[in-house]
Amino acid sequence: MSIAMKPAFFIAGERIEQSSAEAWTVIDPARDAPLAHWPQATDEHVDRAVRSAREAFETGPWRRGAPEDRARALMEFASRIRAAAEDLSRLDSLNVGKPIGQARDDVEGAARFFESYAHLAVADPGELIEYGEKQMTMVVREPIGVVGAIIPWNFPITVAAAAAGAPLASGNSLVLKPSELTPFTAVRLAELGAGLFPPGVFNVVTGTGQSVGRALANHPDIDTILFTGSVAVGGELMATAAKQIKRIDLELGGRSPTIICADAPFEQAVASALQRIVYAQGENCAAGSRLIVEESIRKKFIDALIERARALKIGDPQLETTDIGPMISARHRDRVMNYFAGAKREARELFVGPTPQDSPFDRGFYVPVSIWQVEPDHQIWREEVFGPLLSVMSFRTTDEAVRLANDTDYGLMAVIWSGDQSKALTLAKRTRAGIIRINGAGSPIHGPWGGFKKSGIGRGYGKYGIAASTELKQINIPFG
After folding, report:
1. pLDDT single digits (tens) 332-351
2. Has 285 been annotated as catalytic?
3. What pTM did the predictor assign?
4. Residue 389: what are its φ and ψ, rounded to 5°?
5. What pLDDT sits at residue 133?
6. What is the pLDDT of residue 20?
7. Which residues of the chain have pLDDT under 50?
8. Residue 183 and residue 7 in contact, taking contact as beta carbons nearer than 8 Å
């Protein structure tokens, strides 16, 4: 299947279709078939994008205009995204291998991010501080400058919107680099924004992290780096930022626990535990990859979980009935299957699901959903798999549940199920994670997103994203 979209960059308000000897092939992961040959941006392209962003910031109307103007542009951007929603959803489903229903949720999430930031563009009135009888101090937020955003492949349009929304709402200029595996919707977003943002405010450059990402992060005219991705790359970018005394915001990995107490609403908890490991094929930093079940209900819970897992449909992500698609690439499929092989050696197999056997999906990058009884030293308990492998352990006491939940280098999210609100809140307070969900509660789009430990540095979304995209200034005024 092909995509009727010409590969391009988007720099200074212009779509640039560039032939390149270093073009790479973007693959449909469900069929292992080519979708497009995409050009690699050169260092010169990155420099041009950053210089256009700097010029727009220093001399253009976006930063200097009224916040209401930015709010109107972002609201219109959200409307354009919704008008193109089916096209964008099909693009991401085909490119990522994500079930079409989930891709539609991602597109709606992108529109909601821009709406949320449109409201926040006009929400900060600043602050006045009295300083004696003859001075007043104004505290204001100002845009930080040129933002370099490097985003991953698992939620291309949603993370693009989350990364772009706060900088744009605050009056910054942006250079966005999507993953080389999933460039389509980032470039499509830039096209949809044509005429809404002055030239140079919203730029997109495509290519590998080793080349384009590194050039962007190292560019001296980038004022701050926003990165979502692996711990290894996050560490490299942090070192780069340190050398230049450059601000950086990192949203990295996760090994999130789901704690199931014996008094939990049973069927809801079972459905949630399964959904949290198979959503987005488990290629999700907030995936509930570690299941911690109270011993007294462990067997009943696992039996019910397996019964639900048997009903999952794995296959063509473009079909409405599909629950699970492929891994993003052959390389990532092989990585996940290495963890699967390790689990076969050291853990106890509880369930292994099927993979597609019919053409053309037998060629796709599918892995089976699997559930494993593990020990604390097992590799799939300790390391981020980024696939639909669920590790299970049990607990007898609250202290043991907390110990197991915190037995990780990560701390992005934890989910707790209990019929006793006091117990659930106690677990929430003691669990070292940036986001806690109790009994099916969701996370608001304007809540702080980020984690403890190796899950990252800083917080995004809502006013917290605005804070990451701005500088505070005090202005002292004498009178009298």
Report:
1. 999 999 999 999 999 999 99
2. yes
3. 0.96
4. -110, 120
5. 84
6. 61
7. none
8. yes
Burial 342-369 (b: 16+ CB within 10 A, else e): bbeeebeebbbbebbeeeebeebbbbbb
Tokens of 270: 């079972």
3-state secondary structure the chain: CCCCCCCCEEECCEEECCCCCCCEEEEECCCCEEEEEECCCCHHHHHHHHHHHHHHHHHCHHHHCCHHHHHHHHHHHHHHHHHCHHHHHHHHHHHHCCCHHHHHHHHHHHHHHHHHHHHHHCCCCCEEEECCCCEEEEEEEEECCEEEEECCCCCHHHHHHHHHHHHHHHCCEEEEECCCCCCHHHHHHHHHCECCECCCCEEECCCCHHHHHHHHHHCCCCCEEEEECCHHHHHHHHHHHHHHCCEEEEECCCCCEEEECCCCCHHHHHHHHHHHHHHHHHCCCCCCCEEEEEHHHHHHHHHHHHHHHHCCCECCCCCCCCCECCCCCHHHHHHHHHHHHHHHHHCEEEEECCCCCCCCHHHCCCCCCEEEECCCCCHHHHCCCCCCEEEEEEECCHHHHHHHHCCCCEECEEEEECCCHHHHHHHHHHCCCCEEEECCCCCCCCCCECCEECCEECCECHHHHHHHCEEEEEEEEECC
Cα distances (Å, whole numbers) of residue 22 to 14, 27, 36, 46: 21, 16, 13, 15
Verify whether residue 261 is a known catalytic residue.
Answer: no
Structure tokens at 236: 């490299």
Distance between CA atoms of 310 and 305, rounded to whole angstroms?
9
- Tens-place pLDDT, residues 151-193: 999 999 999 999 999 999 999 999 999 999 999 999 999 999 9
In 122-230, where does DSSP find H-type helix? 156-170, 184-192, 214-218
The predicted pLDDT at position 152 comes to 97
Q: What is the pLDDT of residue 184?
A: 95
Kindly report the CA angle at 117 between 115 and 121, in degrees rounded to 5?
A: 120
Catalytic choice (180, 261, 283, 285): 285
Domains belonging to the chain, first-starting first, are 9-252+455-476 (3.40.605.10), 257-444 (3.40.309.10)
Identify the active-site residue in 251, 283, 294, 384. 251
Q: How many CB atoms lie within 10 A of CB 25?
A: 10
Q: Which pLDDT does position 102 carry in this prediction?
A: 98
